[in-house]
Design a protein that fits this description.
about 90 residues; alpha/beta; 3-stranded parallel beta sheet
C-alpha cells in the first residue's frame, strides 16, 4: 500500500513490539512521505520502531532523497518488473 506520514504504520509497529516482537519491519509499495516525514522513521527518529523499511521506487522524487547508507530504508527497483510485464502483456 502507500504511506504518507505513517501514523497507522507506526502504531502497528509499536503494538507488535509491545506484544513481544523481537523486531518489526515494513514494506510499502508507494512511499509518499510529504515534508520528509520519512525522517521520523529513520535511526533516531521519534517513530524508529522498524528494523528495516523496504519501499519501491514508484515515487522516485521521494526515494532519490532517502539516505541508504546507515539507514533503515532499502529501495526496491521496479524498472525490470515493469519492463517484463509490459513486454509480456503487450504480446498477449
Amino acid at each position: 500500500d502507500l504511506v504518507q506520514t505513517g501514523g497507522t504504520l507506526y502504531e502497528c509497529g509499536k503494538t507488535l513490539k509491545a506484544a513481544g516482537a523481537e523486531s518489526v519491519s515494513a514494506y510499502v509499495s508507494h512511499a509518499v512521505f510529504p515534508k520528509e516525514s520519512w525522517k521520523r522513521f529513520d535511526v533516531g527518529g521519534d517513530r524508529a520502531v522498524f528494523e528495516k523499511f523496504w519501499i519501491t521506487n514508484s515515487i522516485p522524487t521521494v526515494t532519490n532523497t532517502l539516505p541508504i547508507k546507515d539507514s533503515i530504508f532499502e529501495v526496491l527497483d521496479l524498472k525490470n518488473i515493469i519492463i517484463h510485464d509490459l513486454d509480456h502483456y503487450s504480446s498477449v
